[in-house]
């Protein structure tokens, strides 16, 4: 099958959606499908893979994450390639203008349009004039209208499916979970974090990964770590990510007198991320704005015990007391469970093995591709 992916974000951009799209494209190709990826042009970056077409774009609003851009196809010779190529269907990823461009192409060619919703748009309304221009309710309305124009609607978690139904989406919604290539995370520990960020070799590492932004709730993790470090001295918090809250979070760590025990790595190349996870002892995440976060899947694939906020987005990744802890958003409870894991290497090992086992069960590329192909074939049949 020939499939055109229109992605709001793609490699080398560092975010879960880009990683998810890349994983899915690779999996489809393994099963002898042809996948064309149309994504934002990144200054200075040259793709080393075939069938990736970059479209010039501009940032929509200064405060909006750079992963949401406005495509400018008329400024690029790629537009003719988009128009002239034959596809069986268009599969768009995201809620932005690149996905809308995919809808235009599908309508123009009279082929099915499938859309995967990766993001709860209403949680990001605050990026435009603090939510005064586009309110959460308006964001929900936009998603509803967009989804009801699709031939097929996909999301990566039951949580997002229920959100879309509440918004008034009438189309059938298929849940196809995110996944990773397990082989990429089967690396030896090269002590990447200890060596590159001068972390004492006898210090355990608590890791969180994500954009430094309000919706990721990194502030909660820093305040929790403050409680942990009072009770457990040989421990270090690594925050892997970049974003608009960095200055605020740095100041918070200084005010809590934790600047020597917290490391902000900024952006790390995607290819290096398996080494980052491998050098950590515990993975912590407290965002309630997620759909099915890639970072939790990657941590699980790396064999890490997980300490996560109790949210339906993580239902597939963590079983409380089996491979980690699923907790209410309470600093004291988070701190207690982290300390328990820090003090018990055998429990960490047990949870880590359970995480890896769970990742192997969840990451069945053949099953995921089969489920996706069923959606595609159903859409093609209905279009005839």
UniProtKB/TrEMBL annotation:
GO molecular function: glycosyltransferase activity
UniProt xrefs under InterPro entries: Glyco_trans_1, Glyco_trans_4-like_N, Glycosyltransferase_grp1
Stored SUPFAM superfamilies: UDP-Glycosyltransferase/glycogen phosphorylase
Origin superkingdom: Bacteria
Residue ranges annotated for the Glycosyl transferase family domain, each copy included: 193-355
Residues in Glycosyltransferase subfamily 4-like N-terminal domain copies: 15-183
Name of protein: Glycosyltransferase subfamily 4-like N-terminal domain-containing protein
Annotated source species: Candidatus Daviesbacteria bacterium RIFCSPLOWO2_02_FULL_36_8
